Amino acid sequence: MDKKQDVILDVNDKPGFWLWIGLSLQHMFSMFGSTVIVPLLVGLSPSIALFTSGVGTLIHILVTQKKIPAYMGSSFAFIVPMKYLMQVTGYPGIAQGVIAVGVIYLIVALLISMIGSDWIDKLLPAVVVGPVVIVIGLSLAGSAANDAMLNNGNYDYKYVVVSLVTLLLAIFFNMYVKGFLGFMPILLAIICGYVLSIAMGLVNLSTIANAQWFAMPKFEIPFVSYNVKFEWGAIIAIAPIAFVTITEHLGHLMVLDELTGRNYFKNPGLNRTLTGDGLASVFAGLLGGPAVTSYGENIGVMAITKIHSVYVLIGAAIFAVLFSFINKLNVLIMQMPLPVIGGISFLLFGTIASSGIKIMIENQIDLAKKRNLMIISTILVIGVGGFMLKIGTLPLNGLAVSVILGVILNLVLPKNE
Question: What 8-state DSSP symbol labels residue 228?
C-alpha cells in the first residue's frame, strides 16, 4: 500500500538535522515519564531502564529492517510480579523472568513463521485478555493508595495533598494541554508534583545537589554483578504475562498499519516484529532493566504530527541512551516522593484497568453467557484478591495464576451452553 497523502514525513524519509533533533527529543520526552516510573515503582534503576529502552528500540528497528517506527519502553504489565519478586529474590529473579518473556516472544515468532498466527486468537481471545488487563491495573491499587497517604506507616496530610494535586494535574494536562506539551501530560504532572513536594519539605535536596553529574549506569549483569541461581518460581511468575503483552503488540501493529498505510503483518512480518520485541527484553534482562514493549505514547505522537520517520525514532533511542549517563537525573528520579508516585499511579493503573474494560466492550463480550461469566469472574477475583499458588519455595502470584487459569478455562469450557 502506498503512503497516505497527508503524511509530512513517511517512514523512510529523513528530516533535516535540527528538525531531526527536535522531533527525536519530542519522542524521548513523550515516553520518558512512563519508562522511568516503572523501575521507580519496582525498585530498579531508572538510568538502566532508559539505556535498555533506547538500545532495545534500536534492536527492534534493526530486526524489522527499519520498516516500523516503534519505540520500546518499560512495560507496565509486569509491575505486579516484578514488585513482588524484588522483595523475595531481588533483581536476579526478575532478570530470569524478563529474559524468559523475551524467549517466549522468540518462540512465538518461530511458531508464527512455521504455522501462522491464527492460534494466538484462539489461545488469547478478548474474554481472557480483557479481564487480565483489568487485573494488571487493579492489583496495584492498594500500593498506589498507600504511597499516596502513608509516611512511614502513618497517615500524612501533606502526602494526601501532594498525591491528589498530582492526580488532578495529570487529568487536567491530559484533557486540556495541546501542542508539544500535550504529548507528555504524565511527565508534566510528575514535575509539578515534585516541585510541590519540595515546597512542602518532602524532598532531601542535598542528596541531589551532592550527586555527580555523569556516571555509568550500575548494570546488573549475570555472573558479573551477581551469581546466577535458577529461580523457576520467578520465571513462572512473570513469563505467562508475555502472552498478554503479545496481544498488546498485535494491537499496536494494527494501529501502525492504519497510521502509515502499510501491512506490517506481512512486511516485514509478525515473526520479525515479535523477534525484535523479544530480543529487546532479553537484552534488558541481561543488563538490569524491566521488560519492554512498544509504546502507545509514541504512536500517539506520530498520529498527531503526521511524521512517521523511523529515523526520528532512532534519534529518540540514541537520546535515551545518552540521558541514561546523566547521574544527577537518575538521583533526581530516585528521590521522587512517594505521594507523587501514588497520585500518578491512581491514573496510570486506572487507565490500564479501563483498557481491559474497553477490550471486552469492543469485542462485544456477552456476560449473559455462563462461559464468559465463569472465565472473567475467575480471572478477576484470583488476580486482584492476592491469591498465591506455592511452587517449591517461591509462590506463584495471583496475576500469573489468573492468566494460566483463564487460558485453560477458555480452552476446555464448551462454546455452547
Answer: -
Rounded distance between C-alpha atoms, residue 196 and residue 149, angstroms:
15
- What is the pLDDT averaged over residues 375-404? 84
Report whether pLDDT(71) > 80.
yes
The H-or-E segment that residue 4 falls in is none
pTM of the entire predicted model = 0.84
Q: In angstroms, rounded to a whole number, what is the distance separating the alpha carbons of residues 47 and 219? A: 9
Residue tagged 536476579 (cell numbers): 92
Task: Provide the 3-class DSSP secondary structure of residue 216.
Answer: coil
By the 10 Å C-beta count (0-12 exposed, 13-18 middle, 19+ buried), 414 is classed as: exposed
25: cell is 527529543
Check if the beta carbon of residue 287 is closer than 8 Å to that of residue 50. no
Q: How far is CA 110 from CA 104, 170, 293, in A?
A: 10, 41, 19
Counted residue by residue, the chain has a size of 417
Tens digits of residue pLDDT in 93-148 = 999 999 999 999 999 999 999 988 788 888 888 899 889 889 888 888 888 899 99
* Other residues' Cβ atoms within 10 Å of the Cβ of residue 354: 13
